[in-house]
Amino acid sequence: MGLLRAAGVVYKPVEQLDLGPDSNEIYVEADIKAPRMGGLLAKIFAWILESRIFGALAFYILKRLNRVHKFISNATVEEPPMFVPLHPYVDLDEQEVIEIDSDASPAERVQQAMNCLPLTSENSLDAFKFSCFRRWTIADYSRAYRNGEITPLKVAERFIYAVHESSSRPLSIAFFINYDAEDILRQATESTLRYERGAPISALDGVPIAVKDEIDCSPYPTTGGTKWLHKVRPCTGDACCVARLRSCGAILVGKTNMHELGATPSGINPHYGPPRNPYDPSRISGGSSSGSAAVVCAGLCPAALGVDGGGSVRMPASLSGVVGFKPTFGRIPHSGVLPLNWTVGMVGVLAGTLEDAFIVYAAISGHLPSHEPTTLPPKIHFPLLNSTNPISNIKLAIYGEWFNDCNEEIRLCCSNAVQLLCERYNWKTVEVTIPELEVMRLAHYVTIGSECSTALSSHLENLGRSEFGWDARVVVDIYGAFNSNEYIKAQKLRYRHMQIHNKIFAKADVIVTPTTGMTAYSISKNALKTGELDYVNGGTIIRYQIAGNFLGLPAITVPVGYDKAGLPIGLQFIGKPWSEPTLMHLAFAMQALCITDYRKPKVFYDILGKK
């Protein structure tokens, strides 16, 4: 098809890019050329892509229409490739932080995190009379257990009942792919005995924590949302992050539902059902960590683990009205996580509050196993959230055209939240231009697609595609269409965008954006059996996510309001490498200004409170 070769962009050196507010760099909006497909249409499209006659032509047309040829395949990029987004550790001299002993155990780190939190009341559960909606926190669980008001065993029994009840609703919520009542009760019994002896391991002892089914957690298989992957890759033990939580006494309550292979942002799974949004069960909870977002939103757990390869922690957190935290690439061990996208994927935390995200982060962060790639081990600093001296002189970078590329309700809500934050703390916004964002999205898609295709290649040779859901089948077909030239070009663009973002961070402490470009959309009936491919809505949801994954930057989303339909809206902070403490300070400050307006979901289980 040489005669039809599309002209490629010639990228000018980064040094010549104007990143100021008056830059002549044009904001290129996403222009995704792909119809929404579900049901029979998804099946027909899969057959076309897999056809020896029509497949190659279809892939060529898709790449050309969606500007992959222009921005990636045929582009001229002078920068060297960067295959792994590892950042050398730099001491950022952050405000109001404390350095943590790198040899501290997970339980010791949890205690140190608790010491960084504001003092909370030691009142009993009966004393809490909230004038606004409030989720129970890890500190609430720990306090109630220590005071003898309730036991981990009683909480486990309530949890099991709630999960059973959720599956018998007219619209089943489909929180979990696997949970084992006997194993949950065993863990809860052991935790109850520790409290009776006055010897809990940590504040996490007896606290229910859910795990995305992309992360190994005994005694469960790791399916990745498929019906087959666990058969060819058996789970042989806990992932490192799970083992650390278990060592703190947390009750691992099961494997949460997810989009098959993390393929799209909807979170809909045709094999195990769609994890529905507790704020409106007719809508998506967001993916791919859809089940983890839903269990936290619905009050079943104060926190859950997810994996974020393309916003897959932050997007569902935002759509479901909870906190979503993705640390710097390399901060949390990745061992025991399905190797689907090894240079963009990262274990993250979904939680009801910033404090709970911080506590779980404290437990699972730390030295990496020696076989994982890393630079010099980064120091661990925790934010002193109990400090009486708020951090000062914070500069928030905003790229106006990008920030405003969302629906009007989100734009107004997030703009007002930023204004409120700056007025309250006397922080400043800095207008910037971040060029080539659509190029970065496409380069990320080539990267995550190529890595996933490579990871699955040996299994596809043996199994074929018959056991895939139709939506995942189409996605895997598209992933396999990228070639080595496109992958290398994408890595050159990764290095290029790393330099661009370094220049932005020389002007500001963080980049602030809405978390998603739209709120949760409705689940279509024809998606229930086949899944769905909705690249247009998916592109809108993922719009602000890419830098966190492609460049390995830390990012956090916190709920800041609701649209007219009562659906949650999130605000995102993207930080410099290793700046997790500053991000948590900012999210904590934002949460404090919004928490009195938080609303109770339509589906909510009061696991800890009195019945």
Describe it.
The protein has 611 residues and is α+β, with helices and mostly antiparallel strands. It has 21 helices and 17 strands. It has two domains: 33-82 and 435-490, no CATH class; 103-119 and 130-367 and 374-380 and 393-434 and 503-595, Amidase signature (AS) enzymes (Alpha-Beta Complex). It has an eleven-stranded mixed sheet with strand order 3-5-4-8-10-9-16-17-14-12-13, with helices on both faces. A two-stranded antiparallel sheet has the order 1-15. The longest helix is centred in the last third of the chain and has 27 residues, at 437-463. The termini are far apart. The model has no long low-confidence stretch (mean pLDDT 94). Residues 265-286 are annotated as: Disordered. InterPro entries: Amidase, Amidase_dom, AS_sf. Pfam families: Amidase.
Assign the CATH architecture of the largest domain.
Alpha-Beta Complex
Low-confidence stretches: none
* Alpha carbon gyration radius: 23 Å
Question: How many DSSP helices?
Answer: 21
Spatial arrangement of strands, main beta sheet = 3-5-4-8-10-9-16-17-14-12-13
In whole angstroms, the N-to-C terminal distance is 68 Å
Biggest sheet statistics? 11 strands, mixed
Overall CATH class of the largest domain = Alpha Beta
SSE-based structural type:
alpha+beta
Name the overall outline.
globular
Number of domains: 2
Provide the β-strand percentage band. 5-15%
Q: What level of helicity do the residues show? A: 25-40%
Q: Mean pLDDT, nearest integer?
A: 94
Looking at CATH, the homologous superfamily of the largest domain is Amidase signature (AS) domain
